[in-house]
Amino acid sequence: MAKLTVEIVTPEKRILTVQADEAIVPGGEGLFGVRPGHTPFLSLVEPGTLTLIEGGRQDRYFIAGGFVEVSNDKVLVLADAAEHVNGIDVAGARRRLAESEARLKDLNSADARYALEQASVRREAARITASENR
Hints:
Blueprint: E1 4-9, E2 14-20, E3 22-27, E4 30-34, E5 41-45, E6 48-54, E7 57-63, E8 66-71, E9 74-79, E10 82-84, H1 90-105, H2 112-132
Helix pairs in contact: 1-2
């Protein structure tokens, strides 16, 4: 049976290159699945959990956002940041979430920092959710 090659790359390093039966990606319009033979396309990746399925086993990675390219049975995730869900510092994520929420309360939507804090809230909330679904 054909396999997908899945790569997760951040600006700092290549996180992962593996073979998988399926990849479930947190796309800009919601989750989508990719199996061998999928139509080529590009998509935004929202903060969330990338699930890889291989031989009935699931492996999960937190993706902080970025882009994904699907082509020729390859899924290339260009992530702002990524980590295996088992490596998530949940206490740190909860602290960063609380700090961002507190800063957000002091800003109005016209402030340039507002969108940055909103993105931080979404990212840390997604990181916590990913860790809970280990």
